[in-house]
Amino acid sequence: MKSSETKLRKFLTRSAAAVAMVAALSGVVIFGGALGVSVMLIFITFAIFRELVAVGYSEANGKKKLPWYRSLQWAWFFTSLCAAYISDFFKAPMFLNDYFGDIIPSYLSIVSLHKFSHYKYLILLLMYAFCLMGTVLSLRNGHISVQLHILSFTVLALSIFVIPLKMAIFNVFTGIFWFVFPLLLVAVNDTFAYLFGMSLGRRLIKGTFLRISPNKTWEGFLGGGAATLLAGWYLPLWLGSMSWLTCSYLDLKKFGPENCQPMELFWGCSSSGGAVEVQYHGLFLAFMASTIAPFGGFFASAIKRAYGYKDFASFIPGHGGFMDRLDCQILMALCTWVHLKTFVVGQSPVDQVMNSLYSMDANERDAVLENLLSMKSWKS
């Protein structure tokens, strides 16, 4: 009797927390838009690293014998964060100067700081050098193997989530659809993998699916994949009919949600005609969500098993921490970014120049225009 009551209590707790998370996320997406989602992703980046730092703290530094344990990990984190956010490769301009230009002094404005971008990689090199020197100076005889183990875990953790979450901001900049849709695909896959695993697990296929996670079954993996493919085909028709989701941040800023023009691949989502191009993109992303993204969760499970943790944190009742909820989503953000760059918004030289122009102030744009006009006169 107590066992059934405990299970019911856990189910209700998880359900209530899930509803709260969905409501909070919906509020950020609807009222915060692309900028609000981006701020949320930056917050999540900090929260996930905090959880991962805490994983091995008691084991590796329980007696406080290792100097600068947390400081060095956070230093490496900020270095990797800067590397991801200053890189032109993942750039997603949000016109933050328009929001903060009246608050901060002009000489500290984002446009002014843009003038110093020529030195950004030098600054990044110095940050990396200080982190490396600090790590070497912190090494102590008798603890070197443990310290190198900590460094390896830190670098591995940073490679898993810092850049993918920055990629997620690029996805949001391309259109909130490319954030919401992959997120829903992973949620569908998780839900139906659980349902198929509970109802049919090891009844049709007896073999072990994953040794590090014995509760995972082939029925759950395949059933979740089938449901995700269906969602990948039909969900884009519903989400694609909302212009505020499908228009890019640039178009929403210029024309507003009522007048912006979605990408051509979304055309026809609101009609009852044949297949729409975005549905084929949806199938491809659904395939990634059901085959590649789950391994983010499997890998996170392996980390928890290695350190003897049930959850990375207890921030979310019944669910654990941010890493517990987003392990698959992080890998899916990377898959979505690659898909966008390869098949949807591969930037031409003209697009790259235009993105640079958007980051300039009015005087700089006038100077570029004068140079372009002079080049045109030379051609004449």
TrEMBL record:
Family membership noted in the UniProt record: Belongs to the CDS family.
InterPro entries hit by this protein: PC_trans, PC_Trfase_euk
Organism: Octactis speculum
EC number: 2.7.7.41
PROSITE patterns (UniProt xref): CDS (PS01315)
Listed GO biological process terms: CDP-diacylglycerol biosynthetic process
Uppermost EC category: transferase
Keyword Iron: no
Keywords recorded for this protein, A-Z: Lipid biosynthesis, Lipid metabolism, Membrane, Nucleotidyltransferase, Phospholipid biosynthesis, Phospholipid metabolism, Transferase, Transmembrane, Transmembrane helix
Molecular-function GO terms, alphabetical: phosphatidate cytidylyltransferase activity
Membrane topology, as annotated: Multi-pass membrane protein
Subcellular location: Membrane
Record pathway: Phospholipid metabolism; CDP-diacylglycerol biosynthesis; CDP-diacylglycerol from sn-glycerol 3-phosphate: step 3/3; Lipid metabolism
Gene Ontology CC: endoplasmic reticulum membrane
Residues that span the membrane, as ranges: 12-31, 37-57, 69-87, 121-139, 151-170, 176-196, 217-235, 280-300
Catalytic activity: a 1,2-diacyl-sn-glycero-3-phosphate + CTP + H(+) = a CDP-1,2-diacyl-sn-glycerol + diphosphate
Protein name stated in the entry: Phosphatidate cytidylyltransferase
Main location class: membrane
Pfam families: CTP_transf_1
